[in-house]
Design goal:
By secondary structure, this protein is α/β, with parallel strands linked by helices. The protein has one domain: UDP-N-acetylmuramoyl-L-alanine:D-glutamate ligase (3-Layer(aba) Sandwich), CATH 3.40.1190.20. 39% of the residues lie in helices and 28% in strands. The strands form two sheets. The protein has a nine-stranded mixed sheet with strand order 5-4-1-8-9-10-11-12-13, sandwiched between helices. A four-stranded mixed sheet has the order 3-2-6-7. α4 runs parallel beside α5, α8 runs antiparallel to α9 and α9 packs across α10. It starts with a helix and ends with a helix.
């Protein structure tokens, strides 16, 4: 069954909408302290560029075999050029990638020595889209939805300014008209703007901050209460809450539960949420099975944490792990 499901991934066309970033990793070696200040001197050995944010969600979907389009706004700068080059290499469609000379492409540079991050340097402009850019972006997205009618839309929100409330609401409304399922990985700025979506996937801390509540422990009863509050505010269909090393919680009108995390050798949790939303949304669109969706997404999120840096899920490794666990 799982092999047949994975084969069907290639039949999906997915539109990912949201904030993208360029993740830069500079690997080096520390063998002395600077004479200018009490800081280590890192001799850089090599530099690596990777897709981050919504671009990583798109890459995860493509890694599983889907046709993927990405809608976002980036700057007319070197980081934007590098990001577009990576997207083209990975065969992610970029027709809806807008470039704006007034914005800078979000770039996060990590200096790493002996598998330890020494410092992270962020270059970004997180101001909301201007009104003209917002309208242009909405128009192109709605036109694309109308013509292409993708099988799924995924919002990936990193609070970097692309997903303004009006952008969110216009795209969701059009997806409803076209009966296109919508999945969301939210952040706090527009946490409660995603009304009526199919899958709402925050992490536990984002829920607590978004609803302005506290929790002593992530018990099934407490999580059911959070789902009820989210449902009252958002009127969505499915809640999927990631619980870090505790696994994931899922709920809809018919079932709910906690799926524990599998024992892992954790190297880096960066980008795990991107993988979870990609796998969860794709599995649900094809199966409509909420428990299966949560189970496979839980496994995938754990697998990418075993690799340093932001990486997409490896389809063959995920298939192998699922097959072993189900036997």
């Amino acid at each position: 069954m799982v092999h047949q499901l994975f084969e069907r991934f290639k039949d999906l066309h997915i539109l990912v909408v949201g904030d993208v970033m360029l993740d830069v990793y500079r690997w080096g070696q520390v063998d002395r302290v600077s004479p200018e200040a009490p800081v280590p001197v890192v001799r850089i050995r090599n530099t690596e560029h990777r897709l981050g944010g919504a671009a990583n969600v798109a890459l995860n979907c493509h890694s599983l075999g889907a046709k993927v389009s990405l809608a976002t706004v980036i700057g007319e700068d070197e980081a934007g050029d590098q990001l577009l080059s990576l997207l083209n290499q990975e065969q992610v469609l970029t027709d809806l990638v807008h470039r704006n000379k007034e914005r800078s492409t979000t770039s996060k540079t990590r200096i790493i020595s002996r598998s330890q991050q020494m410092i992270r340097l962020d270059e970004e402009n997180t101001s909301p889209l201007s009104i003209p850019e917002e309208h242009s972006f909405i128009d192109s997205c709605l036109r694309y939805l109308q013509i292409q009618k993708p099988d799924l839309v995924i919002f990936e929100d990193y609070n970097k300014g692309v997903l303004k409330e009006n952008v969110i609401k216009k795209i969701i409304a059009h997806c409803k008209v076209l009966r296109i399922p919508v999945a969301v990985d939210p952040k706090h700025d527009n946490f409660l703007a995603y009304e009526g979506v199919d899958i709402f996937k925050p992490n536990l801390n984002e829920v607590l901050v978004g609803l302005q509540v506290s929790m002593t422990a992530p018990t099934i009863e407490n999580l059911q209460g959070l789902h009820a509050q989210l449902k009252e505010r958002l009127q969505h269909r499915i809640t999927l809450i990631t619980l870090s090393d505790k696994g994931v919680y899922f709920a809809d009108t018919e079932s709910n539960g906690i799926i524990p995390a599998h024992l892992r050798s954790i190297a880096d949790v960066s980008g795990a949420g991107d993988t979870v939303i990609a796998v969860a949304a794709m599995v649900y669109v094809l199966t409509k099975d909420v428990r299966l969706m949560a189970s496979y997404a839980n496994i995938a999120g754990g697998l990418v944490c075993e690799v340093p840096g932001v990486v997409p899920i490896n389809k063959e490794k995920l298939l192998q792990e699922i097959s072993q666990l189900e036997t």
